[in-house]
């Protein structure tokens, strides 16, 4: 039993397997709606990020494909906006240490009221996006990325190659090299993803179905009062491991 009250085992296969599992686990920081908005998003994607469970998706009429096929990739992440994209922990770091660091920076921040959210079909997928940039949100996201970077395991050359840096802009390549992900700091764009990439003819029926599904349940304005530390499970699905209130001492 260590000082945190967590039983640990050493010099056996269980310990080695646990270390291997920790090394393979990815962690991220999300802003994840709750209430009616969060419930609607979980239903649409078929995954409850807060409860860590699959749920039945609706079957809207008029879709070009089943909703489960349209949402395969975003389902694994749940309904959220990414603040710090998924990363592996550096050797020796723990989830508890990461959560403590996130809690510390959240106490120095304040809740953020977002500009209005709208359904948008930009960038080949449907998502909720803000009608304009939020300087406060961008600053908070940058702080999270910078403050937690000491706990991030650097990418291997193979991992960098897999991200196809040649397809990125020069600023995005610089972010990939510095922070292990291209879409942070000046490249950060707040959004809550609802679909995989769609064919052009799929946008109208899927967008209409999404608008009907979220009607009356959209939080506008959405006041972000907490950030969530999420962990990827063995099946590749993310779930909340800790919730950190903005501006609140822990």
Commentary on this structure:
The chain is of the alpha+beta class. It has one domain (13-245): Alpha-Beta Complex (Cyclic Phosphodiesterase, Chain: A), CATH 3.90.1140. The protein is 35% helix and 19% strand. It is built from nine helices and eleven strands. It has helices at 13-24, 35-45, 67-70, 72-77, 95-107, 135-148, 157-162, 170-179, 203-214, and strands spanning 26-31, 47-48, 53-54, 81-88, 112-113, 117-120, 127-130, 191-193, 223-224, 226-232, 238-245. It has a four-stranded antiparallel beta sheet. A three-stranded antiparallel beta sheet has the order 6-7-8, covered by helices on one side. A hairpin with a 6-residue loop joins strand 6 (117-120) and strand 7 (127-130). Helix 5 packs antiparallel against helix 6. Residues 1-17 have low confidence and may be disordered.
The CATH homologous superfamily is called: Cyclic phosphodiesterase
Give average pLDDT, whole number: 90
How do the SSEs run, as a string of H and E?
HEHEEHHEHEEEHHHEHEEE
Radius of gyration: 19 Å
- Broad shape: globular
Stretches with pLDDT under 50, minimum 5 residues: 1-17
CATH architecture: Alpha-Beta Complex
Ends: how far apart? 24 Å
Instruction: Give the tally of structural domains.
Output: 1
Q: At the third CATH level, what is the topology name?
A: Cyclic Phosphodiesterase, Chain: A
Please give the number of β-strands.
Answer: 11
Q: What is the CATH C-level name?
A: Alpha Beta
> What strand order characterises the main sheet?
4-1-10-11
Residues in helices, as a percent range: 25-40%
Number of helices: 9
Beta-strand content estimate: 15-25%
* Structural class by sheet pairing and helices: alpha+beta
């Amino acid at each position: 039993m260590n000082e945190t009250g967590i039983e640990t085992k050493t010099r056996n296969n269980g310990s080695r397997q646990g270390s291997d599992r920790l090394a393979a686990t990815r962690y991220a920081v999300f802003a994840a709606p709750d209430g009616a908005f969060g419930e609607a998003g979980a239903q649409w994607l078929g995954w409850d990020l807060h409860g860590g469970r699959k749920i039945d998706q609706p079957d809207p009429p008029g879709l070009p494909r089943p909703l489960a096929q349209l949402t395969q990739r975003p389902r694994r992440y749940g309904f959220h906006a990414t603040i710090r994209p998924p990363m592996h922990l550096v050797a020796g770091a723990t989830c508890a240490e990461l959560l403590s660091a996130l809690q510390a920076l959240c106490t120095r921040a304040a809740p953020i009221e977002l500009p209005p959210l709208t359904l948008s079909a930009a960038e080949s997928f449907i998502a909720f996006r803000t009608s304009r940039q939020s300087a406060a949100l961008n600053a908070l996201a940058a702080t999270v990325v910078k403050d937690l970077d000491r706990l991030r395991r650097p990418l291997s050359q193979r991992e960098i190659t897999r991200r196809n840096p040649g397809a990125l802009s020069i600023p995005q390549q610089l972010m990939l090299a510095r922070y292990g992900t291209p879409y942070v700091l000046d490249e950060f764009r707040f959004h809550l993803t609802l679909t995989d990439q769609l064919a052009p003819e799929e946008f109208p029926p899927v967008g209409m179905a999404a608008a009907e599904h979220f009607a009356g349940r959209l939080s506008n304005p959405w006041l972000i009062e907490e950030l969530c530390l999420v962990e990827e499970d063995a099946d590749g699905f993310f779930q909340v491991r800790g919730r950190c209130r903005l501006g609140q001492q822990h």
